[in-house]
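The following record pairs a protein chain with its ligand, iron/sulfur cluster.
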Amino acid sequence: MWKNRRRIVALLGGAAVLLLPFLRIRGRSAARFDLPTLSLHFFGAVVPIDEFYLVLWGALFLVSLTLWVTVVFGRLWCGWLCPQTVIGEIGEWIASALPPGFRSGGKTLVLLPFSAVVSLSLLWYFVPPAEATRDLFRSPILLGFFLAQWGVIYIMVAVVGPRFCKTACPYAMLQNVLADRETLAVAYDPARAECLLCDRCTRFCPVGIDIRKGGQRECVACAACIDACREVTSRRNVAPFIAYRGTVLRGKAYLFAGGCLAAALVLLAALWSRPDVRFAVQWEGKAGTPQGNLYRYSVRNDSDRPVALALSVERPARLLDNPEVAVPSRGRVTGTVTVKGEDGTPGEILITAAGPGFRFVRKAAFP
Ligand code: SF4
Ligand code: SF4
């Protein structure tokens, strides 16, 4: 039965969303936009907010992934993985253990604490899980976000439900534009005239459509109608009149998959080619000594270990200050140094910062 497979997928998807913030890679959460440090933690990589140009590459990858999945698999996301569907599905599953007369009200009740857990887990994507849970009732901001999310999630899954999928979901509209004749979809086989006209497919459809009238944009590809049909056709030893139809392996699918792969490679290359240590320097003003100039430097260390650098200048100039700079892990150090010219000629100088495995040379004015 597709229903059981869908529930397994829903459980795995739900568990992944709940547990991902607890997964630690290189000592950090696998997926979190860390509010205290304003940086994105993503499977071991740390992207500070001033490097959010990388998010553009991430967005490009997500767009190409969405295009590929939509063109090939249609609304499979909607029926199998969309949080709107998954939360409702799990609520229905839990309520199915209740006596038949209490199931509908039971589902509405079960969704109340379940939506609260989902709302709390969303906070874990911004504040470390232990901290968010501990401070939930101490921080008015955390509590406000938690309650607002809880309300929205509960209304979406318990009150609005599949009506959203049917009328307002923007992804459904995108699907209308991208789907073609070979996109995977649930379809009735009109060539088989022996349909039993039992109407079970329509009764079990969560969005209330009759798939026998042909493919419709409201269909979320959940396969509930296939299961309903199979229950009656299996008694007669015939295949269900409804099934998933479409062609997954085809030219267009390879084309979109190639685009998706290229975007993923660009994103990974941009992520992993970032330097760990950066050095910048600029002229600050004249120093109090004859032929002296003051320079402001900045060293940023994006690695997980502290680094030590030594500053130096090329002759005919010399550094009057301590050339040693220590930068803690994931820290930034700024400071000034005074450079004295030895031959009295204005122009430009080269300031060098060197440490284990790196060497930066920056040109600066020497007025
Ligand atoms: S027609 Fe079938 S697959 Fe489509 S939404 Fe209804 S039950 Fe789900
Ligand atoms: S459930 Fe199957 S047999 Fe019954 S009406 Fe629908 S398509 Fe026909």
